[in-house]
Amino acid sequence: MFNIIIFGPPGSGKGTQSEKIIERYDLTHISTGDILRQEISDNTELGQTARQFIDRGELVPDSIIIGMLENKFNALQKSKGVIFDGFPRTVDQARALKEMLNKRGERICIMINLEVENEELIDRLLKRGETSGRSDDNLETIEKRIKVYESLTAPVVDFYKNEGCYMGIKGEGGIDEIFRKICMAIDTKRMA
Ligand code: C5P
Ligand code: MG
């Protein structure tokens, strides 16, 4: 399997680029944010718990996220590979993912970090918030999310640098231009 992590701060374009990547490489998309939003709209117990964290711009606890991810991964039909979008968001989640993949003889082949300046992130999230129906549609929640990203999520970068599969890509500019850079990085890894 060719497994990818698409990583970056909120508003960096993970979801947008994931759609294009799965189409080109025929991968399975696992977006923990999308799963959580579905649980919330289905009003499940998990959704009700998750909502309290999401509405505050905080992270849902590792144990919940890791359990949810494992269920999703176990239910996978035959797949050429997975793109993990919005996961891992903490170093503990990264460790759990490594263990989960190891047990199946799998690994992460490339971790793509979409690098975007905070000012641009805030602009994009405010814009998205006008139509998304998401709770991060106001400056207060957006700034909280960026703070949480910097303190809990950014350290995940070093984890994957140590794993030797890290690739930083500038996530500013046109969507297609960014996608081209991502494809170049993926193709280089696939041929290696
Ligand atoms: O990935 P996305 O940005 O769509 O996630 C939306 C929200 O879901 C996050 O702001 C966070 O509150 C929650 N989440 C989380 N842990 C994850 C993924 C999402 O807490 N691994
Ligand atoms: Mg997303």
Order of helices and strands: EHEHHHEHEHHHEH
In which range does the helix fraction lie? 55-70%
**End-to-end separation:** 14 Å
What CATH calls the topology is Rossmann fold
Can you list the ligands bound to this structure?
cytidine-5'-monophosphate, magnesium ion
How confident is the prediction overall: mean pLDDT?
Answer: 96
Please compute the radius of gyration using only Cα atoms: 16 Å
Task: Report on this structure.
The chain is α/β, with parallel strands linked by helices and 192 residues long. The chain has a single domain, classed as Rossmann fold (3-Layer(aba) Sandwich). 59% of the residues lie in helices and 14% in strands. It contains nine helices and five strands. Strands 2-3-1-4-5 form a five-stranded parallel β-sheet, sandwiched between helices. The longest helix is centred in the last third of the chain and has 17 residues. It is globular, with a radius of gyration of 16 Å. The model has no long low-confidence stretch (mean pLDDT 96). The site of magnesium ion has 6 residues, from helix 1.
List the helices and strands and how they pair.
Blueprint: E1 3-7, H1 14-25, E2 28-31, H2 32-41, H3 45-55, H4 62-74, E3 82-85, H5 91-103, E4 108-115, H6 118-132, H7 139-153, H8 156-163, E5 166-170, H9 175-191
Helix pairs in contact: 1-9, 2-3, 4-5, 6-7
The chain binds cytidine-5'-monophosphate and magnesium ion.
